[in-house]
Write a structure and sequence with these properties.
This protein has 9 helices and 10 strands. By secondary structure, the chain is α/β, with parallel strands linked by helices. Helix 4 crosses helix 9 and helix 7 packs parallel to helix 8.
Length: 331
């Protein structure tokens, strides 16, 4: 990918938005009601861009504004909405929003286009009986760190540490902090300390506290904690994925650590864990266009829509839905 090709990527990411979530598969478009052991009446979905399944535009038009401001970029066909339709819940409040962290569960989230998403926990009540939660990646700074792994060359330039020029901070979420010249593994592990590993570990108690607070606010609720799809491939595909092999391998391992942390937090916080990672292996950013659950950049054909990097497309949203529904039907 040339430097010019990265311009639209950075421009779109500067909005703190992510992938398209257009209607893609038959599973997504018309989930049917299923027999479950429990009938759910009041469902609240909480989380970040991977639960909002954020998009810029698709066949449904612009982002959904029924539950949150437009600049949350929430899809009309994200997995929470598919789940609400399949379970025929009486009331569904979808608080999911791009760029959210656990801080945004209890405080208003200021958004890049001037909107404000109310504290996500405001949607919870004592009568809420089903909650899905997808959060943690932004708490650990993984999305922003991944941008610093981008490289316009297949190999990192042999530059001395600290010599890659930094980019000015514009106060906008998800902008890279320096030029896309690779070498992120060396920077994030300098001095033998893996700063991303530390950030993931530091995020775990935040997730645990959030889950425990949900139990207090909604004591009747069944709570499901959802992890992240398998976005990072086991092997590279430069220039489709503009990243050195060393940085890709580091990011792959880091992503696995993030999902392992989410599983631990679910157990400690008294939530059920939903594994969306395993069934999505092979549907990463390097998969063929009609097989991807996550996009690299540009137009998604696996559910037509305008995409930005490394978030679920509508096929990914449908895969998340199937994994969550399977867990609900297991009890």
């Amino acid at each position: 990918m040339t430097p010019l090709a990265l311009v639209p990527v950075v421009a779109l990411i500067s909005l703190g938005l992510a992938l398209p979530s257009a209607p893609a598969t038959a599973d997504a478009e018309a989930p049917t009601a299923v027999a479950t052991k429990r009938v759910y009446q009041e469902y609240v979905s909480l989380g970040d861009s991977w639960s909002a399944d954020v998009k810029l535009a698709d066949l449904n038009g612009l982002p959904d504004t029924r539950h949150v401001p437009m600049d949350c970029a929430q899809s009309q066909s994200n997995y929470p909405k598919l789940l609400a339709r399949a379970l025929k819940v009486r009331a569904h409040r979808d608080a999911t929003c791009g760029s959210a962290t656990t801080d945004d569960f209890t405080t208003p989230q200021k958004l890049p286009l001037g909107g404000t998403n109310a504290p996500q926990f405001d949607r919870l009540t004592k009568t809420t009986d089903l909650v899905t939660v997808g959060i943690g990646g932004n708490d650990a700074g993984i999305a922003a760190a991944a941008l610093d792994c981008l490289s316009v060359l297949p190999q990192a330039l042999p530059l001395p540490p600290g010599s890659i020029p930094s980019l000015p901070s514009l106060g906008v979420p998800l902008l890279p902090s320096q030029l896309p010249l690779g070498g992120c593994k060396e920077r994030f592990t300098a001095g033998g300390v893996d700063v991303l590993d530390q950030a993931i570990k530091a995020s775990e108690p935040k997730l645990v506290r959030a889950l425990r607070h949900i139990h207090k606010r909604s004591p009747r609720a069944r709570i499901l904690m959802v992890d992240y799809l398998a976005a990072v491939p086991t092997t590279g595909c430069y220039p489709l994925l503009p990243m050195t092999e060393s940085d890709r391998a580091y990011l792959y391992t880091t992503f696995r650590k993030l999902n392992a942390m989410i599983r631990r937090a679910a157990t400690k916080g008294g939530a059920e864990f939903v594994d969306t990672y395993t069934p999505s292996i092979g549907h990463d950013v390097c998969a063929p266009p009609n097989k991807r659950y996550v996009e690299v950049v540009g137009v998604s054909v696996n559910g037509p829509g305008v995409g930005v990097p490394a978030h679920p497309n509508s096929a990914g949203a449908a895969a998340q839905f199937r994994a969550v529904l399977k867990q609900i039907r297991s009890r």
